TrEMBL record:
UniProt protein name: Uncharacterized protein
Database matches in PROSITE patterns: ZF_RING_1, ZF_RING_2, ZF_TRAF
Metal-binding found in the keyword field: yes
Residue ranges occupied by any RING-type domain in the UniProt entry: 18-56
Lineage: Eukaryota, Metazoa, Chordata, Craniata, Vertebrata
Entry keywords, A to Z: Coiled coil, Metal-binding, Zinc, Zinc-finger
Coiled-coil ranges (or none): 192-240
Xref: Pfam families: zf-C3HC4_2 (PF13923), zf-TRAF (PF02176)
Segments forming domain TRAF-type: 101-144
Source species: Sphenodon punctatus
GO molecular function: zinc ion binding
TRAF-type zinc finger segments: 101-144
SMART domains given in the database record: RING
Domain of life the protein comes from: Eukaryota
GO biological process: regulation of canonical NF-kappaB signal transduction
Amino acid sequence: MGYDIERFVGYVNEGLLCCICRDVLEDPLQAPCEHAFCTSCIHGWLVHHNNCPEDRQALDMSVLRPLYRYMKNDLNRLQLHCKNREHGCEMICSLESIDRHERECEYSHIPCSNTGCPVLVERRNLDGHLAVCEYRSRECPNGCGYTVLSAEDTQHNCVAELRTELELLRSEMICRMEEARHEMESRLDSQRRHMVQKESLLQNEIEELKSQMSRMMSDLRSLMAAERQHRQELEQAELEKCELMELRKGLQKDCRLNSDASKKGTHFRPLTRLDSVKRKPREVTVI
Ligand SMILES: [Zn+2]
Ligand SMILES: [Zn+2]
Ligand SMILES: [Zn+2]
Ligand SMILES: [Zn+2]
Ligand SMILES: [Zn+2]
């Protein structure tokens, strides 16, 4: 929709009017047939038509172009009243700068800045409204630390508020402690499982070592038994050796005696051989 022609000061060229809304062009576009329209007007028209509303020539969105520069300049230079004229604004400015003015116009109606407040107020009256707005908030004068909406002022009860807060904190704390406990328990549990596993591993190793040791002990016992056996056999052999030595000595002695006896024809007597040796030369000298 264009700008209401009533707001303009002085004559407005026919060519700067929208062919559809007949007001002064707002955000204009131009067709190849040189007819011009507000963007919103022609977009609305082309939803149900495919021609120029002025001369019925074929038309679609893709052939629309910006307004000729000289027309755009003429448009921008038009002077018009602020839209808040009926509320008291006496500003007249060029079409080019009317938007900027209206954004900051003291007579524009703006929403109250307090959240939840439905009041629309002229910008110049905002401060006055904020001072009495039912949605204004302020810190509790009793020092409980709460921000109280003006509308709830009489219902505010510091103790009740604090009690609610305390309950909230308490339940939050319980929740957190519960979480921590759960985590700790699960950690302990996994450690316990780990230890049990380790213990059974160690137990197995101990069993293995025990069986190794008992095998070694039985080996050792059989080795010792074998050694004992060997030693007995050795002693036995030694004994037999001694006996045999004795026997040999006896036999040698017998053997010698026998040979002496067979030489002299007498049985062995001590010194017999010596005597005969001593005696023989004497016999000889006597002869
Ligand atoms: Zn229009
Ligand atoms: Zn046309
Ligand atoms: Zn104004
Ligand atoms: Zn308000
Ligand atoms: Zn309070």
